[in-house]
């Protein structure tokens, strides 16, 4: 090049003027090249047109924001200034060469309020791309999108739009990408497709390659079954299809196979109740397949595990989905797979070692299936780059292979709830320097915590060693500076609670579970500044005595049950400001019930059962917060009347005062508690006639009034009081009299069903014929108390003064398990209809006539 230029510009080659012109031209070209290199968009975007600038400024002026900078608008729109070029300087704005706005990105700008403020958008008629996602409109999607005929990309996702999707979107015939996803929730359908329906929406969108309607309710039953036919006939170029939680049902129609260009398919949280079709294995371009919790059943086609481009496969939470894992070829099977989630299904058989050799695998979740067999040492011989390994909740057995400690990339390890056995030296985990979560709970392991180098053991955030045959607190925990979640429950740890436990992780901030051990009080009491951030504390089933050993002021859940604590501080409510669950059940607590305890604002479950509390519950009832769902005070020494009024916003589901010394008549304000499932007032001194008004409680399933002083005829039920869901009626050992009314029996709808029913409930009792136990589970910082309510359907009217014939209609209670009519004054023959009770396990008609 240098030789050529020297020749061109030599005096003998050209006249002077010609040489000058060439030199000048080269200089201009060089400057232009420099500008193009420095700002590649200069050649694409022109200077902003005044009309376009004014439209954008008008839009900015009308918008409202939930969070703002010191200038009153989010930082993202602070660049929208009249004195700058909207095409080159304004964030989220893209222009064409002549200064027309063709792209506008207002996503995640905390925009709130009515969509009327967006009217000026529809004057930007050259828009090709529009993104309003992740804002807070809380209103309908505006009409007018058909005034933007050049749109190819439209994103309105997760912005709290509600109601019907407008018909104008169906006229955007150039659309390539459409995202109308709403936040996925089963309780509230934010958006719906009714008119236009799905067929009308996509009928003219033949260029569409990406369609996301997550959380949109497809309202018409016919379209819920025919969605596959509609999409395959209208959208031949579709590559991305995401229909999470769209109320779809039925099977997968074969027409779906026509969408051979699919790269992403997401159909989670629907109700197909169908098998995965074989043709899913023909989507050779598929990179993402998500079919979570959608009623899948049967065997998974083996071809799914040979898709050549698959990167993400999630079939979790389909408890009827089964099959086994194949051997994975090193040549062409899932070479790009990074995430495999088959958790909470029914897969079985061994886990092939070839699975762990997949070169791209980073997340593997096979938890809560029925995988079995050993993991031998060859399983992890070729260490993959796995970061999360979850094999919990299976039937794996034998020792944990030492080759697992070759996977240096591991961050999360869950081997819990299997049948692994033998002794495992915990110092082996020193090789996993990236480890953050370790769960070895509920196996047949004996964990050896000796010989651990505290300086080398990884700084974990979560350590669960439940049921690991530990006998002492592992000393290395003192140096765990990042630990926030510790579970050492159900071991054999005895002795005093160590004084250094409140310094673990600079103060545990999430969970401390030491339940089911033999721990005693610390030698030195903890200070009031201890455990200040702890959210979940479980010390139940130990040997603690005297005062409560730990009182974290920020806790959400506190369980001290099954100890020998003898008193709680009078200011206990000041430690329950954030508590939703508080249990002191089965201790030896004496004294009065603290007046403020029942009125703690966030409390949902209060269980003080099986203690020696005395005094009145009047103040507790009167001050009860509207959020309390379980009140269990059974088996104490509480006395006085219960004529206090419950709050009108009562949310109780379990009300258990069994086994006290309460007297007087029931307050009709109990009828305010319209969600009650369990009323147990047995073994007290209540009096009065049968409380017919309780029949207004549509969810009531257990009514126990046994061993009180109720009297008089039960009589004919009053209109509107039906007891439709009763499964247990125990009014034995009272003074009821009169004839047994067949009209009552005809009202017990659930007992007339020949199927046993269990349901979700809160609270618990120790009566042998039902179990209603609270189980505390956590999800982030949210807390849930859910347990299946196991009930034997029962009618116990014994030890009263009922007379007359036994109604033959009692044979219609097909679900009845226990019938006790003994020790009354009943007469006549035993109805032959009792022989129709196929579920009946026990009946007693003795000591009648």
TrEMBL record:
SMART domains listed in its UniProt record: LRR_TYP
Keyword flag Signal: yes
Keyword vocabulary terms for this entry: Cell membrane, Glycoprotein, Leucine-rich repeat, Membrane, Receptor, Repeat, Signal, Transmembrane, Transmembrane helix
Record GO cellular component, one term: plasma membrane
Subcellular location(s) of the protein: Cell membrane
Leucine-rich repeat-containing N-terminal plant-type domain residues: 50-96
InterPro entries named in the record: Leu-rich_rpt (IPR001611), Leu-rich_rpt_typical-subtyp (IPR003591), LRR_dom_sf (IPR032675), LRR_N_plant-typ (IPR013210), RLP23-like (IPR046956)
Protein's membrane topology: Single-pass type I membrane protein
Gene Ontology BP terms: detection of stimulus
Similarity remark: Belongs to the RLP family.
Official protein name in the record: Leucine-rich repeat-containing N-terminal plant-type domain-containing protein
Source organism of the structure: Stephania japonica
């Amino acid at each position: 090049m240098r030789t050529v230029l020297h020749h061109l510009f030599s005096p003998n080659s050209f006249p002077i003027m010609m040489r000058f012109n060439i030199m000048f031209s080269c200089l201009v070209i060089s400057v232009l090249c420099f500008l193009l290199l420095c700002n590649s968009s200069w050649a694409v975007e022109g200077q902003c047109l005044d009309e376009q600038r004014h439209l954008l400024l008008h839009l900015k002026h009308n918008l409202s924001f939930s969070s703002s900078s010191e200038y009153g608008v989010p930082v993202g729109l602070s660049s929208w200034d009249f004195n700058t070029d909207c095409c080159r300087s304004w964030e989220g704005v893209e222009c064409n060469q002549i200064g027309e706005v063709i792209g506008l990105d207002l996503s995640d700008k905390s925009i709130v309020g009515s969509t009327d403020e967006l009217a000026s958008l529809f004057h930007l008629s050259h828009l090709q791309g529009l993104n309003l996602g992740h804002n807070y409109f809380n209103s309908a999607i505006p009409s007018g999108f058909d005034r933007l005929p050049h749109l190819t990309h439209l994103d309105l996702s997760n912005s709290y739009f509600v109601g019907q999707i407008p018909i104008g979107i169906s006229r955007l015939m150039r659309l390539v990408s459409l995202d109308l996803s709403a936040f996925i929730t089963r309780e509230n359908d934010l958006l719906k497709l009714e008119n236009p329906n799905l067929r009308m929406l996509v009928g003219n969108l033949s260029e569409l390659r990406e369609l996301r309607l997550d959380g949109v309710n497809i309202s018409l039953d016919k379209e819920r079954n025919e969605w596959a036919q509609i999409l395959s006939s209208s959208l031949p170029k579709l590559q991305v299809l995401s229909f999470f939680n769209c109320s779809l049902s039925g099977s997968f129609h074969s027409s779906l196979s026509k969408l051979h260009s699919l790269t992403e398919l997401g159909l989670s949280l629907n109700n197909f109740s169908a098998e995965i079709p074989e043709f899913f294995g023909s989507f050779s371009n598929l990179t993402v397949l998500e079919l979570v919790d959608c009623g899948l059943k049967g065997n998974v086609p083996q071809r799914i595990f040979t898709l050549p481009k698959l990167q993400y496969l999630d079939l979790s939470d389909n408890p009827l989905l089964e099959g086994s894992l194949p051997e994975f070829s090193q040549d062409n099977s899932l070479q790009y797979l990074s995430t495999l989630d088959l958790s909470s299904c029914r897969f079985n058989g061994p886990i092939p070692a070839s699975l762990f050799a997949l070169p791209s695998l980073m997340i593997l979740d096979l938890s809560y299936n029925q995988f079995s067999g050993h993991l031998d040492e060859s399983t992890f011989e070729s260490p993959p780059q796995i970061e999360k390994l979850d094999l919990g909740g299976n039937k794996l057995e034998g020792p944990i292979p030492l080759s697992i400690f070759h996977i240096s990339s591991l961050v999360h390890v869950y081997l819990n709830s299997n049948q692994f056995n033998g002794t495992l030296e915990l110092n082996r985990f020193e090789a996993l320097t990236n480890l953050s979560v370790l769960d070895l709970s509920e196996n047949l392991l004996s964990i050896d915590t000796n010989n651990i180098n505290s300086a080398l053991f990884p700084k974990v955030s979560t350590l669960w060693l439940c049921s690991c045959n530990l006998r002492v607190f592992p000393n290395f925990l003192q140096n765990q500076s990042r630990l926030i979640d510790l579970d050492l429950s159900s071991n054999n740890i005895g002795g005093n609670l160590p004084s250094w436990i409140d310094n673990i992780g600079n103060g545990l901030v999430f969970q401390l579970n030491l339940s089911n051990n033999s721990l005693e009080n610390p030698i030195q009491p903890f200070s009031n500044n201890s455990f200040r951030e702890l959210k979940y504390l479980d010390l139940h089933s130990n040997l603690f005595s005297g005062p409560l050993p730990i009182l974290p002021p920020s806790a959400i859940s506190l369980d001290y049950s099954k100890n020998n604590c003898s008193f709680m501080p009078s200011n206990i409510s000041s430690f329950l400001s954030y508590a939703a669950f508080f249990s002191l059940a089965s201790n030896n607590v004496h004294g009065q019930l603290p007046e403020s305890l029942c009125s703690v604002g966030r409390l949902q479950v209060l269980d003080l059962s099986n203690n020696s509390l005395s005094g009145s519950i009047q103040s507790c009832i009167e001050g009860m917060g509207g959020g309390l769902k379980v009140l269990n005070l059974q088996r104490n020494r509480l006395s006085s009347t219960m004529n206090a009024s419950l709050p009108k916003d009562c949310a109780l589901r379990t009300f258990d005062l069994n086994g006290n010394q309460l007297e007087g008549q029931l307050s009709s304000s109990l009828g305010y508690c319209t969600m009650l499932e369990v009323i147990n007032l047995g073994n007290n001194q209540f009096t009065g006639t049968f409380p017919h008004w309780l029949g207004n409680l549509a969810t009531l399933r257990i009514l126990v009034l046994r061993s009180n002083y109720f009297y008089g005829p039960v009589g004919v039920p009053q209109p509107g009081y039906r007891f439709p869901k009763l499964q247990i009626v125990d009014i034995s050992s009272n003074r009821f009299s009169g004839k047994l009314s067949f009209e009552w029996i005809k009202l017990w709808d659930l007992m007339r069903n020949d199927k046993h029913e269990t349901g979700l409930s809160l609270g618990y009792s120790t009566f042998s014929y039902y179990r209603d136990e609270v189980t505390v589970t956590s999800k982030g910082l949210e807390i849930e108390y859910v347990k299946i309510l196991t009930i034997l359907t029962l009618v116990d009217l014994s030890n009263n003064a009922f007379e007359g014939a036994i109604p033959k209609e009692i044979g219609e209670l097909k679900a009845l398990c226990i019938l006790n009519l003994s020790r009354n004054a009943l007469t006549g023959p035993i109805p032959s209809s009792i022989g129709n009770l196929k579920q009946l396990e026990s009946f007693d008609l003795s000591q009648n006539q």
